[in-house]
Structure to design on (101 residues):
């Protein structure tokens, strides 16, 4: 009976690991979205303080992309939807993507 317990424990651990997967939300640089708008998004959607938002925005500008936060799948999807909605409302082509951590 002991091997079955070990197998069950291993299966439970695998399920727990897959449940705990985290996803990075990444903003991509473009030539049209203003730096001020990116900072606003970082503060409003991702709850960054001004200094942190400016640093991430500069990273996006210099490197072409920047990580805004790491979340569960559902939260990451919601953040991306919020970015898309706000960018569209403000007529910016800002894109956010999700990457498994």
């Amino acid at each position: 009976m002991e091997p079955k317990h070990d197998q069950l424990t291993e299966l439970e651990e695998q399920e727990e690991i897959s449940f705990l997967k985290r996803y990075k939300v990444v903003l991509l640089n473009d030539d049209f979205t203003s730096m001020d708008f990116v900072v606003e998004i970082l503060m409003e959607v991702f709850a960054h303080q001004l200094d942190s938002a400016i640093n991430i925005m500069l990273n996006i500008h210099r490197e072409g992309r920047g990580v805004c936060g790491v979340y569960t799948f559902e939260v990451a999807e919601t953040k991306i939807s919020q970015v898309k909605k706000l960018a569209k409302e403000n007529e910016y082509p800002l894109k956010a993507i999700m990457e498994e951590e």
Notes: The helical segments are 2-19, 35-44, 50-63, 73-89. The CA atoms of residues 57 and 77 lie 20 Å apart.
